[in-house]
Design goal:
The complex is a heterodimer of chains A (245) and B (228). Chain A has 245 residues and is of the alpha/beta class. Helices cover 36% and strands 28% of the residues of chain A. Chain A has helices spanning 45-52, 75-82, 100-110, 115-129, 144-156, 174-191, 202-208, 236-244; strands spanning 2-12, 18-29, 34-38, 60-65, 68-69, 85-89, 162-166, 194-199, 211-216, 219-227, 230-231. By secondary structure, chain B is mainly α. In chain B, α2 (17-51) packs across α9, α3 crosses α6 (100-124) and α6 (100-124) packs antiparallel against α9. Classes of the chains: A alpha/beta (245), B mainly alpha (228). The A-B interface holds A 53, 55, 78-83, 85-87, 89, 91, 93-98, 106-107, 109-111, 138-140, 154, 158, 164 and B 127, 129-130, 132-140, 143, 147-148, 151-152, 154-155, 225-228. Chain A: It comes from Pseudogulbenkiania ferrooxidans 2002. Chain A: Belongs to the ABC transporter superfamily. Chain A: GO terms for molecular function: ATP binding; ATP hydrolysis activity. Chain A: Residues 2-242 form the ABC transporter domain.
């Protein structure tokens, strides 16, 4: 579903040197997988994820999502392609002046859906995340976990093939974290959506991921297989992340 | 000089009612033209100032620098000097340099960059992440402006309009004195040059009342639109 081929991303440092956020990296994520990107702060995991929907444009390499090379698209084509890739954020990034239903409707309005279709789809998505009774509330009236559910419903609304979750549970307490992870897993199972999660917590990976790439200094150190919550780690970095969990 | 009783003062003022009403209309006309110019040109300019900043969707260092410099340039002129320097332009545009319409030319000139800065500042308070979320959903620049920035900043924009209106009510009094007419002009002509203090007091009280009303309405509207 997602193929990153020799992608590389560097930033100019204030001192004039370069910071290599993602060193030449290749990664393939299968359709219907829940794939983790794990590492410590500054390891490049968020940048790597943001390359998938081209919020960051790679300096080199190609980004193929659903057989389409995003790096070669025009601005208009890229906007269309992005409607196929939902995103969930650590800080939720909801529109404060729109209701819960309005927030979920937002990506559908952007995609040009009709009013009737939007209404129907919003109701479905709120049902999936269990927020039907909060449709008319504003984000400020919700708890953190509820806000993130709105974020997930919003990401799910346009029937995307892929959902990217960038530290989606890092602002939440452990109990809420588990319910959000369950929600993501539920969506993955019911709708076959490929899910990519960025996290610094091995527990998140253990809880829902089938595979996970361990990142350090912009490189993939190891790709872990998670079977029944068991993780066989070879690299020192992966072990230290495991111990921290 | 004979002392004036309160009843005499009221009688004088009521005799002047038609002139006071005329002055109010002139002030309103100056404000309406100035604010309309601020919305039509200052608003988009404010958006452009914001959107061309580094990290925003139309980031462009040179455009941003030039626009910022121009806005600062016009804003550096003390209003009275801006007014005098724009006399030739006013004559070309309006065909005259007196009357509320002529006075509205320098008012508009001052209001455009003033409002642009207010808009820019307000837009900066919209969290970057919300704009980014819209980008990730495939929103076009126009959709980001109309569906994200305008909606998320609407309460702040209303507060900006309130500030602008009150500032330019005061500017319009200055413009009035050099031929624009209006409430300020009336206060100076009667209250100062003709020593009719009661006119001065009445005009100031009128302005106090207008400012209070504008601020009250602005606050109510801003609060109602703010769901954060």
């Amino acid at each position: 579903m997602i193929h990153l081929q020799n992608v590389r991303k560097r930033y100019r440092r204030p001192d004039g040197g370069w910071f290599e956020a993602v060193a030449s990296t290749s990664l393939s994520i299968g359709a219907g997988e829940i794939f983790g990107l794990i590492g410590y702060s500054g390891a490049g995991k968020s940048t790597l994820m943001r390359l998938i929907n081209l919020l960051e444009r790679p300096d080199e390499g190609s980004v193929i999502v659903d057989t389409q090379d995003l790096t070669g698209l025009s601005a208009r084509e890229l906007r269309r392609a992005r409607q196929n890739i939902g995103m969930v954020f650590q800080q939720f990034n909801l529109l404060a002046n729109r209701t819960v239903a309005g927030n979920v409707a937002f990506p559908l309005e952007i995609a040009g859906w009709s009013k009737g279709d939007i209404e129907k789809r919003v109701a479905e998505c709120l049902e999936v995340v269990g927020l039907t009774d909060r449709a008319g509330h504003y984000p400020a009236q919700l708890s953190g976990g509820q806000k993130q559910r709105v974020g997930i419903a919003r990401a799910l609304a346009p029937n995307p093939k892929v959902i990217l979750a960038d530290e989606a549970t890092s602002a939440l307490d452990p109990k809420t974290t588990q319910s959000i992870l369950d929600c993501l897993q539920d969506i993955n199972r019911r709708f076959g959506v490929t899910v990519v999660v960025v996290t610094h917590e091995m527990n998140v990976v253990r809880s829902i991921c089938q595979r996970a790439a361990v990142l350090d200094a912009g490189r993939v150190v190891e790709v872990l297989d998670i079977v029944d919550g068991r993780i066989e780690a070879e690299s020192e970095l992966a072990r230290s992340l495991l111990e921290a969990a | 000089m004979e002392t004036l009783t309160f009843a005499d003062a009221l009688a004088n003022l009521s005799m002047m009612a038609p002139e006071i009403w005329q002055a109010c209309k002139e002030t309103a006309l100056m404000l309406v033209i100035g604010l309309a110019a601020a919305f039509c040109f200052g608003g988009p300019l404010g958006f452009l100032l914001y959107l061309t900043q580094p990290g925003q969707i139309f980031a462009h260092r040179i455009v941003n620098g030039v626009l910022g410099w121009l806005v600062n340039l016009v804003r550096s002129f003390p209003f009275i000097i801006l007014m005098v320097s724009l006399v030739p332009l006013t004559r070309i545009l309006v065909g005259s340099t007196i009357g509320p319409v002529a006075a509205a030319v320098p008012l508009s000139f001052a209001a455009i960059p003033y409002f642009a800065r207010l808009v820019e500042q307000t837009l900066r308070e919209v969290p970057r992440g919300v704009v980014e979320a819209a980008e990730a959903m495939g929103a076009s620049p126009l959709q980001i402006i109309t569906k994200v920035l305008l909606v998320e900043a609407r309460s702040g924009l209303i507060s900006g309009v309130t500030i602008l209106t009150i500032s330019f009510l005061s500017y319009s009094a200055v413009a009035g004195v050099v031929g624009g007419g209006g409430i300020g002009d009336l206060a100076i002509r009667y209250g100062y040059y003709r020593f009719q203090t009661e006119v001065m007091i009445a005009m100031v009280l009128l302005l106090v009342l207008i400012v209070q009303i504008i601020q009250f309405v602005g606050n109510r509207l801003a609060a109602r639109l703010d769901k954060r």
